[in-house]
Amino acid sequence: MNATYALLDIRRMVRTPAIVIFAFVMPVAMYVLFGAIQNYGNLPVPHGNVKATVMASLALYGAATAASGLGASSALEQDAGWGRQLATTPMTQGKYLLTKVVAIQIVAAVPVALVLLVGALSGARIDGIGWLWTFLLAWVCCIPYTVFGLAIAMFIRNENAATLVSFFVLAFAFLGNVFMPLGGFMLKLSRFTPLWGVNLLPRWPIMGGYEMTIHEPVEVNLSYAIMSAVVWAGVFAVLAWLASRRHQDR
């Protein structure tokens, strides 16, 4: 990995207006709107309060938005000839990819940290070391969304890819029980969407084995959430592989 290039890339990424607005500011604002200022926010849940569950979900959403958007931008950089310029330097393709992934993951930690900081200051409560687990799980679970962003950008191959990726993540969040508790058919449908499993994982230190619904929390098996996260990570990886093959065939 090239540390100098990674630092320069991180500085560029955190100054990107779309990342600042949609990945940093929007999740914090949504947490304040849907969690911090709501009367139900202080209601207790098994290992914390409702504010903490809203906080965990929006931290994950911010990280997934940052990772997918930056992944898409990276693929477009390669298409624009940046890869050929780097080929004239001592940096190998492997080092470039590793540096890029590390830089994206570091930037993806920013919205997680911001939302948890605002949550801590506004009364979100998690028992014991649950804060640490919530942070780590929200951060780690966004990794497949870097691959998702790369895949969509390699299929679309124009500047609209980043916008489309952001739209998909937003739609996944609405359908995946991230923004608001669902019920009935929508709750059943959510269990087959990409963000359902990864949304449950950072909430696990707060909710234990329960999932928020429109009526009351329902028990859910941890293995289902892990299985969902792994399956969708595999789907994104296959999409990226197919997109790469399509590009090579051209």
TrEMBL record:
<keyword id="KW-0812">Transmembrane</keyword>
<feature type="transmembrane region" description="Helical">
    <location>
        <begin position="97"/>
        <end position="119"/>
    </location>
</feature>
<keyword id="KW-0046">Antibiotic resistance</keyword>
<feature type="transmembrane region" description="Helical">
    <location>
        <begin position="163"/>
        <end position="187"/>
    </location>
</feature>
<feature type="domain" description="ABC-2 type transporter transmembrane">
    <location>
        <begin position="10"/>
        <end position="183"/>
    </location>
</feature>
<feature type="transmembrane region" description="Helical">
    <location>
        <begin position="222"/>
        <end position="243"/>
    </location>
</feature>
<keyword id="KW-0472">Membrane</keyword>
<dbReference type="InterPro" id="IPR000412">
    <property type="entry name" value="ABC_2_transport"/>
</dbReference>
<dbReference type="InterPro" id="IPR051328">
    <property type="entry name" value="T7SS_ABC-Transporter"/>
</dbReference>
<keyword id="KW-1133">Transmembrane helix</keyword>
<feature type="transmembrane region" description="Helical">
    <location>
        <begin position="18"/>
        <end position="38"/>
    </location>
</feature>
<dbReference type="Pfam" id="PF01061">
    <property type="entry name" value="ABC2_membrane"/>
</dbReference>
<feature type="transmembrane region" description="Helical">
    <location>
        <begin position="58"/>
        <end position="76"/>
    </location>
</feature>
<protein>
    <submittedName>
        <fullName>ABC transporter permease</fullName>
    </submittedName>
</protein>
<dbReference type="InterPro" id="IPR013525">
    <property type="entry name" value="ABC2_TM"/>
</dbReference>
<feature type="transmembrane region" description="Helical">
    <location>
        <begin position="131"/>
        <end position="156"/>
    </location>
</feature>
